[in-house]
Specification:
This protein is of the alpha/beta class and 372 residues long. Helix 6 (165-177) packs across helix 13 and helix 11 packs parallel to helix 12 (314-320). Helix 12 links the parallel strand 10 (296-297) and strand 11. The model is unreliable at 1-5, 40-45, 55-61, 69-76 and 136-141 (pLDDT under 50). The protein has 13 helices and 13 strands. The protein has a domain at 149-366: Rossmann fold (3-Layer(aba) Sandwich), CATH 3.40.50. The chain starts with a helix and ends in a 6-residue tail after the last helix.
Length: 372
């Protein structure tokens, strides 16, 4: 087939002088003849100037010839991969291999980092919710501060005869988000009475214990209030619910002439004298008003405003106790900078639950409980 299209080359004629011509047999190899018949079939033994190719003069030649361009090259000079035997030699002449980058700088960095990383990993686990220091903290010579220790004082379980559950839960959520370590307390005393929450009426001939009922909210992890000391905690928070006015004090019965549970009074005075913050919400601010003379607190607005503030009369009782009442919205918190007492209305207002949650969050954030 090839002979029909491209006749085999015959003897070549060349000039030997004026008027003379001589014929010599073509002694060049079959490979050169094939290259003359098909210029694209030039092998690696006939490289073009560096950076050029037959098909695109002047353009950078990045690869060797395609396998199909090797037609006419003797089989004994072609490797098993379809490349000319001189391919490796051509590659060495046209490609410059760079040595791998030195790893000495990285080795030096690792040597400097190793002692600090080892010190960080050797630290023992910290108690509670405190997070372990990261290797980055060790490298910078710092470690996370331990979270504040907060005492949460409950008064039972249930809005009408104990702690308001939603308020206690909101306080725990915001304290957890702030990284606090919380310990829950309640006095080991009998409740004033037990309310049937389906009817809103006292359950006759039934008695319950404040500490036992509070353990329901604390998931069993409850401590007697008699063991609470301001020396072991950074702040104290009292959620509301009628338990604060019935079990922690007699405010629900005696109003401005009320008495406060002896351990509650002791705890409030200890934290106040130590300059440690106290948070109270809902009806619980009456405890601070009774124990800490001249304190500033809020239970919301001083007018019922069509039933939105059904317990607005509490503000007048607080004033009668010698405290100062400050009007605040349900999502706000009031801070008594002098006495370090933070209060918010919570369920003293008839409103949506998320507003109560936001107000308690404002209270928790304004309680300056971070350790120095």
């Amino acid at each position: 087939m090839l002979s029909r299209c491209c006749p085999a080359p015959g003897p070549e004629t060349r000039d030997t002088g004026p008027g003379q011509r001589s014929r010599e047999p073509d002694t060049r190899s079959g490979r050169e003849a094939a290259g003359r018949a098909n210029p694209s079939a030039r092998g690696r033994d006939h490289p073009l100037p560096r950076g050029q190719s037959q098909s695109s003069p002047g353009r950078l030649r990045r690869r060797g010839p395609a396998p199909g361009a090797l037609a006419g090259v003797e089989r004994d000079e072609v490797t098993a991969q379809g490349r000319p035997a001189g391919f490796r030699a051509w590659l060495r002449g046209h490609v410059t291999l760079r040595p791998p980058p030195s790893r000495a700088p990285m080795a030096a960095v690792r040597a400097l980092m190793a002692p600090r990383l080892a010190a960080a990993s050797a630290l023992a686990p910290l108690p509670g919710n405190t997070r372990m220091p990261s290797p980055r903290a060790a490298l910078h010579g710092s470690a996370p501060r331990p979270g504040p220790k907060v005492a949460l004082v409950l008064s039972g379980c249930g809005v009408y005869d104990g702690t308001e559950l939603h308020e206690a839960s909101a306080i725990l959520v915001h304290l957890s988000r702030g990284g606090a370590e919380v310990q829950i307390f309640a006095p080991d005393v009998p409740q004033m009475h037990v309310i049937d929450h389906t009817k809103g009426q006292p359950a006759e001939s039934e008695t319950r214990n404040v500490l036992t009922e509070s353990a329901r909210i604390a998931r069993g992890k409850i401590t007697d209030l008699a063991r609470l000391s301001a020396a072991n905690h950074d702040a104290a928070i009292f959620p509301g619910g009628f338990g604060a006015a019935k079990n922690l004090s007699t405010f629900a019965v005696d109003g401005k002439d009320c008495k406060v549970n002896k351990d509650v009074e002791r705890v409030l005075k200890e934290f106040h004298e130590a300059g440690k913050p106290i948070g109270l919400c809902c009806i619980a601010p009456v405890l601070a008003a009774r124990v800490l003379r001249g304190v500033e607190v809020t239970v919301g607005h001083e007018q019922e405003e069509g039933g939105k503030w059904p317990y607005a009369g509490t503000a007048e009782a607080i004033k009668a106790l010698g405290a100062k009442h400050c009007v605040k919205g349900v999502t706000e918190a009031h801070v008594d900078q002098k006495n370090k007492v933070v209060t918010t209305p919570a369920f003293m207002c008839e409103t949506a639950l998320h507003h109560i949650h936001d107000g308690i969050g404002a209270m928790v954030k304004k309680v300056p409980v971070r350790r120095k």
